[in-house]
User: Fold this.
Amino acid sequence: MIPADDPVRLLSAFVEGMDLSELYATYDRVRKNQASPRQMLKIMIYASMNRLFSSRDIETVCKRDINFMFLLEGMPAPDHATIARFLSLHLSACSKTILANVSSVLYELGEISGKTIFIDGTKIESCANKYTFVWKKSVTKRQAHLFEKIVSFIEECEALYGIKVVYNGKATLHTMKRLRKKLYQIKEDEQIPFVYGAGHRKSQLQKSIETLEEYISKLKEYTKHLHICGERNSYSKTDPDATFMRLKEDAMLNGKLKPAYNLQHGVDAQYITWLDLSSHPTDVLTLVPFLKDMEEHLSFKYKEIVADAGYESEEAYVFLEQNGQESYLKPQNY
Assistant:
């Protein structure tokens, strides 16, 4: 019922020739009455070829479509939870190895040259709320202002309660925790009750402790934001891996800042032989990491690198020369 020249047969034969030892290594054990990791990879690739990305949609076609049944080789159709686990736990753990394996097979078959690669990038919008942004510069300013308030607060506490906190004019989270311990010790020694609600007057010690707890909470929050940002200038609270980038909206290039990923891809003979995700909003800083990552995984080395003016930089030229690769980068002033 399936024609001999149907793409599903080519896909099945291609995946059968791949080394999937790293994919199998992500499993503790492979059950005999379920689709094998190789079969799961086949149906995921074929689903992507047919623009099916929902795990529930893939589950449905595995039960109805004869081509998916052919790939399953008589095994029962996996449910949507199994498909989702395969993507998040198994395929994601070795996706670059599998891509390198695909490129190596294409190189051995003579489908790609292995000599010249054409590199370009595209920004893909994240499925995240575009109003949940965190800006590193803003957080850094607020954190610096908070540190100033904390230093003044420590000096005030030392004067009020006759205590001494060693901080050398610079407050840290550890310093604040030491201060909190001393204040709670005063509360316990003097048996000062804490009151809450309308009609109750709080003691000065209670006000100080509540203020300190608030400062500690805000400092932890700012520290967390800066840790998630890392070297990036922003991130989305609902998708911390996404960075805010300006995306094209219309033909007039009017754009908005939205959470997105900068996807870099290298093409050889119309085949995508390497992919990489970057958090940089522009392409200029992505070329060297892309080439290093590609060289680390592929079994062959491209000698000619072709890219547009967005990738041109002194760092790129120096790296290509030192790496023995020919540069075909379009000059920005050309």
Q: What stands out?
A: The chain has three domains: 7-93, 116-129+238-329, 134-234.
